[in-house]
Structures are given as C-alpha cells and as structure tokens.
Amino acid sequence: MLITFCGVRGSTPAPGADYVRYGGNTSCVAVAHAPGAAPVLALDAGTGLATLTGLLGGAAFAGTILLSHLHWDHSLGLPFFRAGDRDDARVTLLLPEQEAGQGGAGGDGGAGGPGGRAGVREAERLLGRVMSPPFFPIRPGELRGSWEFGTISPGQHKAEGFTVEAREIPHKGGRTLGYRVSDGRAVLAYVTDHCPTSLGPGPDGLGAYHEAAVELARDADLLIHDAQLTAEEVPAEAAWGHAAAEYAVRLATLAGARRVALFHHKPSRTDEQLDAIARRFAGGPLPVLVAAEGLSVEL
Ligand SMILES: [Zn+2]
Ligand SMILES: [Zn+2]
C-alpha cells in the first residue's frame, strides 16, 4: 500500500512563505495498492484533493472518496478535483450517515450504504447545501463523469479492493468517522478531527484513550491522527474539537501501531514550529512523522 499526503492542514488553508515545506492545503490522503499504481482511495476532500490530480499522470480518477465528516476543510476541494471532474472519471463518494434527527434521511428510515436510495439522496442533499448557488455555481450532480454519492455507517465495508472499518469518533459539529483501511497485508488507520477530551481528561489530561480510537489504531502499520494542538494548548483550545500531538503519539503506542503521522496541522503553525514538534518526538520508541504535503509512505 502506498499512501500520499495531498493536504495536511486543518481548518483552513495556509498559504504563504512560512508554510511551504509542510504545505498549506487542507486534509486529503491518497491511497494506492502499490507504489507506481494509481491511487484509488482518497480519504477526505479538502483543498489537497486538487493535488491528487497530479499523482494520476494525466489519467482520470477511478475510485472512492471517503469523507471523515463534512467540515469545510474536508469537503470543499471537491469541485476543484480536475481528475474527478471529467467525462471519463468514475467516482464513488461516501460521507458519514447522519444520525436520526441530524438532518438525515428523515421519513425514509435513514437506510445507508452507497447503494441505498435514501443514502444517495441524503449524501447529495448534504453536499448540495454548500455546493449549490448562491454558494457555488454548480451542484454535486453536475460534476462531469460518473459520480455516485452515498453514505457510510460504522462497521465493515469493502472499497476498491480494500477492507474499510469505520468507527464513530468524537469531534464537534457533525458526525465524524475514523477509518481503518487494510489490503490484507498492511493497515492504515485514519483518525483525524478527534476530540478525546469530550470523553473525559484521560490519564494525562489530553483526553480518553477510548475503545473506538484504540481499535482503529490497533497494530496499524501507520496511524494518521489529528495533531492540531500541542499538549500545552489543550486546556484553552481542546473544546474546539481537536487533539494534541502528544495524545496521537500515546494512542499509537497504547494501540501497538508501528508509526504515527501527525496530521491536520493548525493553520497558523509555521514550518519552524512543526520542525520543533518533530524534534519533541525524535529518538523516542515510536517513529513519529510530521505529515507534509507530497510525502509518500509505503506500508
Ligand atoms: Zn478538520
Ligand atoms: Zn472537523
């Protein structure tokens, strides 16, 4: 499995000279079955999704986009995905099924799954709230190529030759899923936008090491995790819905993951500050990557 970070920033893009080495695009991770193969899975569709086009060598995207949740930094790259917005593209886009009463499928009974008609309607309707006039010139259904929209709920799924396990992760402002992606040999855990303090302070004040997070990360070859904050920032800022880098590293250690990638960097965090965060963990027992746009990792 080859994963490539297409966008590593949280909340809002970070352009400018202080951010060029780690990159300023918002969340998107591309997954391919092997080095040299075209990515067939995209985790989230922040502005980094546009850079996935460059990984495809001029070809159209044929694959699945899994959204962890619908916040702007995970969805607003969608209409700027040129490899997906062309006549020969084939894209399945799945977003978390909303809980009853949260603007879900209402009287349909909320049946989810990419094939469920209620899920298809729900997914297009939700995306269409931000992607439609007067906010944007076109609706999701007007993207070129063959697009299928649907919802995904916690549980085991298959996508593009991968097994995908989805678990609900506490965040803020909308249902959020973490994913565990396996090809039978390697395991990638993707847990971004995670507010573990919402389940209590945990043993170190950084939040609870709860079952869903631990099980997604269990023995993973790589855990990609929210590191919007540092431990010192948690008391003042955790209520905005994010985790500290130190939490990510400890979660990976507790779960037996082999490596952790700190991800979803605060938009104001400069390259120098991210280098300093990398130094905090250098030489520790667990390899810690600070995710940078364009970086690929083979699992
Ligand atoms: Zn985010
Ligand atoms: Zn979010």
Q: What features would you describe in this structure?
A:
It is a single chain. The radius of gyration is 18 Å and the shape is globular. It has about 300 residues and is an alpha/beta fold. The model is unreliable at about 100-115 (pLDDT under 50). About 50% of the residues are buried. The strands form two sheets. It has a seven-stranded mixed beta sheet. It has a seven-stranded mixed beta sheet with strand order 7-8-9-10-11-12-13. It has helices at about 50-55, 70-75, 115-130, 210-215, 235, 245-255, 270-280, and strands spanning about 1-5, 30, 40-45, 60-65, 90-95, 145-150, 155-160, 160-170, 175-180, 185-190, 220-225, 260-265, 290, 295-299. A hairpin with a 4-residue loop joins strand 9 and strand 10 (about 185-190). The protein is built from seven helices and 14 strands. Bound molecules: zinc ion (ZN) (2 copies). One zinc ion binds near residues 10, 27, 71, 74 and 264.
In terms of topology, how is this protein built?
Elements lengths: L1 E6 L20 E5 L8 E3 L5 H7 L6 E5 L5 H4 L14 E7 L20 H14 L15 E7 L2 E5 L2 E7 L8 E6 L4 E5 L19 H7 L4 E5 L7 H4 L7 H11 L4 E4 L7 H11 L6 E3 L5 E3 L1
Parallel strand pairs: 3-4, 4-5, 5-6, 10-11, 11-12, 12-13
Antiparallel strand pairs: 1-2, 1-14, 2-3, 7-8, 8-9, 9-10
Helix pairs in contact: 4-6
Bound molecules: zinc ion (2 copies).
Summed up:
By secondary structure, this protein is α/β, with parallel strands linked by helices. Helices cover 19% and strands 24% of the residues. The radius of gyration is 18 Å and the shape is globular.
